[in-house]
Specification:
This protein is of the alpha/beta class. The protein has two domains: about 130 residues, Rossmann fold; about 220 residues, Dihydrodipicolinate Reductase, domain 2 (2-Layer Sandwich), CATH 3.30.360. Helices cover about 30% and strands about 25% of the residues. The longest helix has 20 residues. It is globular, with a radius of gyration of 21 Å.
Length: about 400
């Protein structure tokens, strides 16, 4: 019989992502019974009493508070999830480090590369394990492509194209929430979406060394939000004056990789019709592959030796990464929530073993550094070098 270990969890911010973290923790025992870890949802902190109470009702947290220090000093809390808006990430992460609590934080880790560096440096000095929400690298189809690359099946990877296009801000009538305010969000799509793309590309083909880019804000004003709204459910105030949008709606980036691979990246938050059109295609000397999150459970591969050189669709199935933990047969499919469950498992296993298995804050710093270099390039029109990765990165492990 497996000896089981209890790990107490504190949640900071109980919006949509906080609920998703909570669901993922509870799913770990069901999908990974052999891990021997029982996440115990102890306490949730949120300034909204309604949000905190919802977390209690849905997931069984025992206590609520509006003070994150009560979470961090709670004797039953072993680790925390930080699911607050970007502008709170740095302070909450540093508080978790000071309290000696491993944490799982969403990207971007702060409002810019400097805040991300402060987090990464503090974590490196403390020796804590962490997790950052780079969930797309956990898709079994992505893992399959990575394995083909590592085994040399696709040969030398010559180029990769990555895109993350969405329509969540396509309407100019949508409210100017914190996501459009530079002091609170930092960059626009560079941090919000392309940080995922940068991590995904490096997970596949290695470190990015330099970038040049262009950005644009197409919707320059938005109505103020109604008071009292929260998260993705905030509505515009029809009687309020328009306010300026302070960060980019669109970004295009060209990248040079250390391996010699060339890359292009594109992202938009105002692409009408693109719901979650996030994907990549890469081309090697012996073959190519392409994947899209909107069809996340399949991958197209073309090998040069095959007759006709056409792409063949492969459905993920047990044997593809963690797929078999969730479904017994190909074609049944995983969901976004399942990717977060894999992420939760890696975080908890990192805590239990002391080894950094989940995407780390060092990975988060690398993505923030690329986004910062891209923003600088968009400002001055020149190539910018990307800092060498430091700390316990995992994208190239």
């Amino acid at each position: 019989m497996t000896t089981r270990r209890r790990l107490g969890i504190g949640l900071i911010s109980a919006g949509w992502m906080g609920m998703l973290h909570s669901k993922a923790y509870l799913a770990v025992r069901e999908n990974y019974p052999d891990l021997g870890i029982d996440p115990d949802l102890v306490i949730v902190a949120d300034p909204s009493e309604a949000n905190a109470n919802t977390a209690v009702e849905r997931f069984g947290y025992r206590e609520t508070t509006d003070d994150i220090q009560r979470v961090l000093t709670h004797p039953d809390v072993d680790a925390v999830s930080i699911c607050a808006p970007n502008f709170l990430h740095r302070d909450f992460a540093l508080a978790a480090v000071a309290a000696g609590k491993p944490f799982w934080i969403e990207k971007p880790m702060g409002t810019g590369v400097e805040q991300s560096r402060q987090i990464a440096d503090a974590v490196e000095a403390s020796g804590l394990v962490t997790s950052v929400g780079f969930n797309y690298r956990h898709a079994p189809a992505v893992g399959h492509v990575r394995r083909l690359i590592r085994e040399g099946t696709l040969g030398e990877i010559r180029s990769i194209r990555v895109w993350l296009n969405a329509d969540y801000s396509a309407s100019p009538e949508g409210p100017r929430t914190w996501r459009f305010v530079k002091e609170q969000a930092g960059s626009g799509v560079l941090g919000d979406l392309l940080s995922h793309g940068f991590d995904l590309a490096q997970y596949l083909v290695g470190p990015i060394r330099g970038v040049t880019s262009a950005t644009r804000t197409f919707i320059s004003e938005r109505p103020a939000p109604l008071a009292g709204g929260q998260g993705h459910g905030v509505r515009a105030d029809p009687d309020a004056p328009a306010l300026p949008v302070e960060n980019e709606d669109y970004a295009a980036v060209i990248a040079r990789f250390g391996s010699g691979t060339m890359g292009t990246f594109e992202s938009s938050r105002i692409a009408i019709g693109a719901r979650c059109d996030y994907g990549f295609e890469l081309f090697g000397s012996l073959g190519s592959a392409k994947w899209n999150f909107e069809r996340m459970n399949e991958v197209d591969v073309c090998l040069a030796g095959e007759r006709g050189y056409g792409f063949t669709r492969t459905m993920t199935e047990p044997g593809f990464g963690e797929f078999g933990r969730f479904q017994p047969g190909g074609g049944m499919g995983l969901s976004f929530d399942d990717l977060k469950t894999i992420e939760a498992k890696l975080f908890l296993e990192s805590i239990a073993t002391g080894r950094q298995l989940a995407p780390s804050v060092a990975d988060g710093l690398v993505a923030a550094g690329i986004a910062s270099a891209a923003a600088a390039s968009a400002s001055d029109g020149t190539w910018h070098q990307v800092p060498e990765p430091t700390g316990r990165t995992t994208f190239d492990a």
